[in-house]
Amino acid sequence: MPDQFSIQTFRITNGCKGNPGMGEVNQYLSICELDKGFLTWPGCPRLSLPGILLFAGFKDSSAFTMFGDLFEEDFSFISNNHCGKEKKSKSRESEPPAPRDFTNLCGIKNQGGTCYLNSLLQTLLFTPEFREALFSLGPEELGTLDDSRKPDAKVRIIPLQLQRLFAQLLLLDQQAASTTDLTESFGWNSHEEMRQHDVQELNRILFSALETSLVGTSGHDLINRLYHGIVVNQIVCKECKNVSERQEDFLDLTVAVKGMAGLEEALWNMYVEEEYFENDNLYRCGACNKLVEASKSAKLRKLPPFLTISLLRFNFDFEKCERYKETSCYTFPIQINLRPFCDQTEMDDSEYMYELFSVIIHKGGCYGGHYHVYIRDVDELGNWQLQEEEDGLIEEKALRGAENAKETGNPLAVLKGILSEEEAKQIPVDQLGQKLLEKKGVSWNKKYRKQYGALRKYLQNHPQIFQLSPDGNKVSLKETHKLLFKLDSHKQNLESPSQKNDVQWNCEKNPPRPRAASAGCHWFDLNDSKVQPIKEKDIEKQFQGKESAYMLFYRKAQLKRPPEARGNPRYQIPEHLLNEMNAANTELQKKRAECDSANNGIDLHLHLSSCYKFHNGALHPSLSWKESVVDLTIDRRKTLGDLRQTVFQMLSSWEGDMVLSTAKPLPAGLHLYQVLDGDELTLDGIGLAHGADLFVWNGKEVGGTKVLTGPEHEPVVLNVLRLAEHNEGGKGQHFSEAQHVFSSSTSLGQLHSALAPAGGIILKNGSGADREAKNWEVFHEEDMKETVRSVGLRDGCSVLILDSHDQSFVNVASGNLTAFTYDISWLQVKNFCGVEQEEKHVKITATIETVMADIKMKAIRELQLEEEMANESCLRPVSGNGKLLSPVPEDYTVKEAELKMGSLLGLCRGKAPTSTQLFLYFMVGSDQNYSPEMEIVVDETASVRECLSLMLEKCGLSGDNWHLRRLDWCYEAGEALSQENATLKELNVCRGDTLIITEGKLPEKGFLKIPIWWLKPSSHKKHEENAQDQMNGITWKMEVLQVSAAAALPEPAHPGLDLCYAGRIEIAGEASLEDLKMQALTLPCCQEQVVPLPSFLRAWTVDSKRPGKLLRDNKRRLSDYRLGARAEVCIEPLQEEENLGPHELLLRVQMGIPGERDYSDSRDLVWDISKECTTWALRQRVASHYCLPVDKIEIAKYFPERFEWLPISSWTQQISKRKRRKKQESLQSAPYHLKDGDIIGVKNLLLDDAKDFSTVRDDIGKEKQSQLALEKRKSRQERVQDPFFTEEKFPMKPRKPEVALSINVGVFR
């Protein structure tokens, strides 16, 4: 995850109950809590932020206080900071960066999407030769960063920033460095830093930028010197042995992953295997001047010191038309010998040996992910430790802890051990308690006081061991016991020399340095800011999977590092950078010291008893809070004794005993809790946090009044309610309400005596503000001994007091109210009945239990309408866009109607449905432009047939050639209501649903209703005339299809075939394909066709107005084809009988007309693919069909939906014999997906050498597609701008366009 995010501005509208004064707030938003897309603040409901990704990285702590104390209770009379007891949040920039962890290596911060950059920079840093070559370039060659702002200065800023970043990574004591300055030198903005890019692309672009930046310096050849290699391509003539060579330079090698087991196989395939030119694919030799047999190969001629290998893990799936990541297993060695792949092999083996030192890993898919890197620490700059050693240290620490626990169980031995180490004769008793806490990690009060009493008393009870001063404030160990203790310790050391110093007082603070690993085994995982050691075998986990190796970096094994470089991060770093880093480290230490002091400083609020008085169950200031409270800042590591002494010094006029008690502001006032005791304890140890409140008093009374302390005596504010006169005009006027304060220890009997009259009763509301009848409970006589706390009464709880005459509301036996009034709110009612008068709306008071009929009557009276309107009108909710929704049954309550208070209702003409009736919308056909939406009320027990009859009667239609369908989510005719005798309730038809009346009867169960099309050949030269005839010939059936003739005319598959509509047939699913053909011949459009047998007909499914799947086998049942409810079939007449087998592919081939962009009429070609379905086999079959040589034709497949031709390449002619034996990819797979009915264009190279297969018709079709796409785009934009079509109805998540990576470099030539 990125370390920092950019600030985004959001407009937040307050919707929190109880804060009506808060309007819209524009602010840099501080995210307090982001939980599954919801934003929350304390005291407010969650605010939903759907579809918004929040990136929050705040640069100003004021963003955290944007709402001030809006949601906090007002205790300003006590303190100016009581809302939170935690330390105030500080700006991230105000705190120094964290120091390095135990690995002593520095990570790099992610700027949002720069993990790919971080991984490559760490690899370059841990390439010592690159790092030192960069450091060797001084200011006299590169310039200085101070001169970068000068207009005429030529400062090579990229290498300067890279030097500075490397120095920070090596020397600066921080957990992670920032690349902001470096990316700014690249010319990147914040958008570029948030984009993800490919690390292979960055590697080449960064090297190019460095080469350009270093032109004219001694480092001009830095990249070539370290990474440049040469590959030589050779072609050897078999006859004259002439060798033709061509050299290629490389900085990195790209190797295939797909189909390869590992790196060695990929290199063998590239640089060992040869390609042969033979048979029809010969090579023209320059020396022989003729076509000859030859072999082609490639070899590595020059090896660089550092070999970079990029793995091609991303490929393109032509079948799915999308990219994908290759996650198969791909191994690579730690050491590799490149001799077999080299052109020159006579040198020593050491010249060819390479060692892996960096693996950049990609986790994710081809459209996004995360990079991190495994690196071998060549110079041993980091601290590396195996997990087994860590486990051993943990186990050893646990054993020491167990021994310490045994020792600390005896306080006598512990105190003797502490005092025996003290050089001073006597130490204060308070200091002894502090040393116990520091050295053993436990305090006397927590560990021993309960069993042994106070520390001073324990020392006094052992006078034979401890010697106390006359005043009892200092203590020492008697000399005899000190000597015995030292002799005993020495004896244990002699008996167990291996365990000497095994138990140390401060062993955690000085962990043992990890043992040095063997050379070459220092591997670390550098994942942005995080650095952790790994084992060498962990690299094997990156061979495969979504998280796998992506780039490999090898170094020559003969490259040795000088001894002075090992473990020395300052090696070869220029003096000016050393000075800069030293100054930065000094500043960091200073800031950390200041931050440590600030973090450990806590603010305490001292409340002085002389400024308070006790009344109404709590403490209240007698003066203003400024005069009652004294603020004190103190280090949390100081003791309670230090605090007490500081308070004494501040309050010089204080007389008598001083007791410090923790206090807490409550709604009733200030309440006291625990008395602080144990002056030797630290403030952190006793739990004092930032912002804590302390009460300074004598421990007994305040202003002459005894004060009860502790949680059991907390004051509780109760809302006491009594029934009042009903007021219809406003909300919450049913009660007279008053607040009373009682102690938590007050009994219910005392509460009853104080509040209820004689004969009265008390009821508790268990749900707080919700005052529904079911939540009120009666306190019975047996409850009177319970306390306020034990019955669950807390601040803000309500109790209801009922007099004797009000008790008719209560069933005392059950303990609940049987009748009660609800909170009153209001609904808006707008008049839609009037035509001539202006539409008015009124507010009607109501509760959630108000019946809708009463609301209607009130609205009629308020609108001054006639009373007779009640029988002719209904109430209908109005949606946000002004649409009238289905009427609400009048016997429903507001709650049953699911109406929210404040909703808008429309008073409309028409009778409202009852609770057993359904209000439905319906239309004829799914096109709303031609058929308006109508409304109807039917019983939910009505059958589908009865409902259809009522709808037809209402819209003026007749006949039985209709059926009902639901409206699907695309606002089109969806599922048919096929069970005509089922009731609407049984089919889950709900109030407000929309049904569509569709023409045509539903077929009986087990029958299919299939539209039949006729596929007939036509001359491509008369295509336009035939198309017009086709239009005229099918106009008669447009009523059945309910579409226009222009829309019904299908686009021809190609100029040689026309598709015209014949009619519909109804046939059983168990019938055969032969039966379907026979029944299709009975249609009026087909009777004039002369067809001797069904085998002279070919049947296709219709897909996108074109022939789709070929239906084979006349005896097969239609149900076996799984045609579906909306399947269509087209019939093609044949000149001869046909019965295709399962392995025969039917293609339509057409020969190109020489000199023209057109083709002759297509011919049917049956191709047996039982043996193979390859390019070579298809070329042979097409060539034999036209009696042409195989090498004199070119073929291509036509894609009519795109008006494109895809040449079927003859690449198999040029592959080697060895590769030809491998199974070639089938043409039925990507990218050709060859199937029945596909069009194959053929070019005769003897007469026509044009390689372009497209026609003029294709150009026109593409132009029409472009215009249609442009119109759709405009329509989509208009629809998005229309407020009715919100983003919620049409969600679109476009993928961000890919942007090329670039680095801006100045000109230094």
Automatic annotation (TrEMBL):
| MF-aspect GO terms | cysteine-type deubiquitinase activity
What domain of life does the UniProt record list for this protein's source?
Answer: Eukaryota
What Gene Ontology cellular component terms go with this record? cytosol; nucleus
State if Manganese is listed as a keyword: no
- Which PANTHER family does the record associate with it? UBIQUITIN CARBOXYL-TERMINAL HYDROLASE, UBIQUITIN CARBOXYL-TERMINAL HYDROLASE 40
Question: In which family does this protein belong, per the annotation?
Answer: Belongs to the peptidase C19 family.
What protein does this entry describe?
Ubiquitin carboxyl-terminal hydrolase 40
Organism equals: Zosterops borbonicus
